[in-house]
Amino acid sequence: MSPPQVPAAVSVEPVAEAGAVAPAATAPPKKPAARGWPGVGPQLAERLAKIDVFSAADLILHLPLRYEDETHLTLLADVRPGMPAQCEVEVLSCEVTLRPRRQLVARAADASGEVMLRFVHFYPNQQKQLAVGARLRIFGELRDGFFGAEMIHPRVRPVNAGEPLPESLTPIYPTTAGLAQSALRKLVAGAMRHNALRDELPDELRRRLNLPALPDALRLLHAPPPSVSALDIEDRGHPAWQRIKLDELLAQQISLRRAYAARRAKNAPSLPPRERLTRDLLEQLPFALTGAQSRAFAEIAGDLASDHPMQRLLQGDVGSGKTCVAALAMLQAAENGRQAVLMAPTEILAEQHYRKLAVWLAPLGIEVAWLSGSRRKKEREATLARLASGETLLAVGTHALIEDPVALPLLALAVVDEQHRFGVRQRLALREKGQAGESPHMLMMSATPIPRTLAMSYYADLDVSVLDELPPGRTPIVTKLIKDERRDEVIQRVRDACLQGRQAYWVCPLIEESEALQLKTAQESYEMLSEALPELKIGLVHGRLKNDEKSATMAAFVANEVQVLVATTVIEVGVDVPNASLMVIEHAERFGLAQLHQLRGRVGRGVHESVCILLFAQPLSQTGRERLKAIYEHTDGFVIAREDLRIRGPGEFIGARQSGVPLLRYADLEEDAALVDIARGLAEDILRDMPRVADAVTARWFGGRAALLKA
Ligand code: ADP
Ligand code: MG
């Protein structure tokens, strides 16, 4: 069997921030070249490929967007403006006019009135169709034109008098230039006729779910019987649609589970808990693990002991203490004499992890290597040599870790922080660093909580541990919404907080259209605050600073030599300075909800009461208002993620741009959550008991697009 195809659902284009991630590694997958199949030549195949149809089987699953009702005729006099209607008319005159531009204009009539038919683009044979005296069925919307009632580009079909009307609705398919509805309709009908359609799901199961058989559902949607109205089946809650969506979700769940199984089947170094270094760290930490951290680490420790690779996602809200769990996992590798790495998406974050690990691990006598783009060549080479010889077991870095010269011969565990910021390929590259014939254990970490339905669908190929508890002693963050005009009062608050020994973040507005403008604004905020707060030391970090400048400023902020840190969203992820208790976000209305939540999570990390001030400018858009309301009302990342999903819809939530592959064509993870549940359970049963069914279902949905889904 060929390896299962994993839909590239969890790959996210790396953000351009800080130039820390290599964009080249995530080029979109190429479409396969279109080849014809019986009845479809190469040129037609080329066009069909544009609508993701690569085979007759794909045609069968190419379902109508909507329907047109040509089952009856309307008299011209009875047509309501704006409502599509079909009329039967006779052509009275037809000419090509040149003013105001070249167009084909015909006058036609039925017993009740007259209509002008107007075509701005037309072919010579259309002109022939519209010969005087021709009888036509026209379908379109009537509007009031300069010369009375007119239809622009109606669909036209010459008929003989008394020709019977179709008995069922006419399907309208998604199509592309050069591929007419009528041609596509014929192709689909042909494919339906010439291909044996079967429902592989056992009858009993289908009856229990109260769904039609797949062939019946397909026939109903492609060629609805006369009894069915467009309204019925355009609503995707119709049982026929439910059956299709269930099939699609099944295919998705099955391929994800298979990908998981295939990865689990690989060999990995077994790293049983030796309770030496891990115990030393636990004794050495200035705090006790939370219950959630202990549970998560126990799950991870169990996985690491296995000789199959761990595939685990550690989800936890900002500040839930993921780093420390990662450190324990890395030590379990080290106490087995093997290497472990921690990869983070930005230089700032990687450096911070490095510092934290170095502090925690120095008393244990464990060295941590630091790899980033900014290390000087000589230091870098020395570090590389120690990693290559296996002398150094632990390393922290940016994507610099996966670059070619980095040899990690003993690699047994790779931890990826903020995993959604890396592309699939980057994670693959990391996986390939280990010994030949061995896959390292993988621990992905994410602070972007994914709502349950999405997680089930997108992470079906991962095991999940959740940190659902924050370390104790955190004071809740107070969130305030303040109008932009009251900025002076806010500056005063910054002064007060800093004079009491606290520190503050000042986050500059996001300007998506222009990085240059964004930098200018950051610079201006920095100057404005330096002037307004002469008694304080102000620092500035943004994505365009050199790495050593950035880390010098961050270090000064950590040491409280800088009290106010003016920053762009480079600080969005991971920055941890417990003494900072005040955060101001300018133009908060421009930020996404997840981003606001991440930013706010930078405060509330110490014992001091923390405040997050969201400055906003009016007028607010509807979604801007909804986002601010959500961030004001909620602090739980999971609740916020749900709100985000509600406001934006799942497509944008996961980020359509990230995969380039429309993973689900018909099912909607939110709307069809109940079906997702069913599909998930069914996928397990089918994989266990009916492998042939599993093959048929995945081949049907992903077969033709295998190359696209491989990424
Ligand atoms: P995140 O999950 O957002 O990555 P971090 O790992 O950065 O969170 O942890 C946030 C802060 O909480 C750090 O300062 C860390 O040292 C501290 N921390 C972690 N676990 C605990 C704990 N069990 N008790 C107290 N503080 C903790
Ligand atoms: Mg973190």
From TrEMBL:
Residues 500-651 form the Helicase C-terminal domain. The keyword Ribosomal protein does not apply. Residues 303-467 form the Helicase ATP-binding domain. GO terms for biological process: DNA recombination; DNA repair. It comes from the Bacteria. Pfam families: DEAD, Helicase_C, RecG_dom3_C, RecG_wedge. Keywords: ATP-binding, DNA damage, DNA recombination, DNA repair, DNA-binding, Helicase, Hydrolase, Isomerase, Nucleotide-binding. Its EC number is 5.6.2.4. InterPro entries: ATP-dep_DNA_helicase_RecG, DEAD/DEAH_box_helicase_dom, Helicase_ATP-bd, Helicase_C-like, NA-bd_OB-fold, P-loop_NTPase, RecG/Mfd, RecG_dom3_C. It catalyses: Couples ATP hydrolysis with the unwinding of duplex DNA by translocating in the 3'-5' direction; ATP + H2O = ADP + phosphate + H(+). GO terms for molecular function: 3'-5' DNA helicase activity; ATP binding; DNA binding; hydrolase activity. Belongs to the helicase family. RecG subfamily. Plays a critical role in recombination and DNA repair. Helps process Holliday junction intermediates to mature products by catalyzing branch migration. Has replication fork regression activity, unwinds stalled or blocked replication forks to make a HJ that can be resolved. Has a DNA unwinding activity characteristic of a DNA helicase with 3'-5' polarity. This is ATP-dependent DNA helicase RecG.
